[in-house]
Write a structure and sequence with these properties.
- It is built from five helices and two strands, in the order H-E-E-H-H-H-H.
- By secondary structure, the chain is mainly α.
- It folds into two domains: 57 residues, no CATH class; 78 residues, no CATH class.
- Helix 4 packs antiparallel against helix 5.
- The radius of gyration is 33 Å and the shape is rod-shaped.
C-alpha cells in the first residue's frame, strides 16, 4: 500500500514541498519566504494577514510602555515628598518665627521665605512632572 502525499499548488510552484517541515513554519509575504514559528516575535501570527500582506503595527509601542513605566515608578516618591512637605515647612516657619522673636530677623525672614517657596514648589511638583511628560510625548 503506497501513501499518497497531497501538496498544495502554491507550495509546489514555490518549491517548498521539497523542504522537510520538522518545525512549524509560517509563510510570509508574497514571495513564499518561510520562517520558523519560534523565530517570530510574540503576536506576529496576527500581524500577517492570510493574503501574506503585512498589517501596520505601531512603532512606539515598546517605547511608550517603557516611558509610562518609568514615569509611574516615581509616583510613590513624589507622593511621599508632597505628604511630608507640610510638616517640614511648618517646623521651618515656627523656627523662623522664633528667630525673628530673638532678634535674628534677617535669618528668620530668610528661613520663612525659603520654607514657603519650598512648600509651594513641592506641592506643584506633580504638575511640573505632568507638563514635562506632555512635552516629551509631543516631541
Amino acid at each position: 500500500m503506497t501513501k499518497t502525499e497531497v501538496i498544495k499548488f502554491g507550495d509546489f510552484m514555490s518549491g517548498d514541498y521539497k523542504q522537510k517541515r520538522t518545525k512549524k513554519t509560517r509563510k510570509m509575504g508574497k514571495y513564499g519566504i518561510t520562517i520558523p514559528a519560534a523565530a517570530l516575535p510574540l503576536g506576529a501570527s496576527k500581524a500577517f494577514a492570510s493574503t501574506g500582506e503585512v498589517e501596520a503595527v505601531p512603532v512606539n509601542v515598546v517605547g511608550d510602555s517603557i516611558r509610562q513605566g518609568i514615569a509611574n515608578s516615581f509616583d510613590p516618591l513624589i507622593e511621599l515628598m508632597v505628604a511630608i512637605s507640610l510638616p517640614i515647612a511648618s517646623v521651618m516657619v515656627t523656627g523662623s518665627a522664633l528667630m525673628i522673636m530673638i532678634g535674628m530677623s534677617e535669618k528668620g525672614y530668610g528661613w520663612l521665605m525659603k520654607a514657603s517657596l519650598g512648600y509651594v514648589l513641592v506641592q506643584m511638583s506633580p504638575l511640573f512632572i505632568n507638563v514635562l511628560a506632555g512635552v516629551g510625548e509631543a516631541v
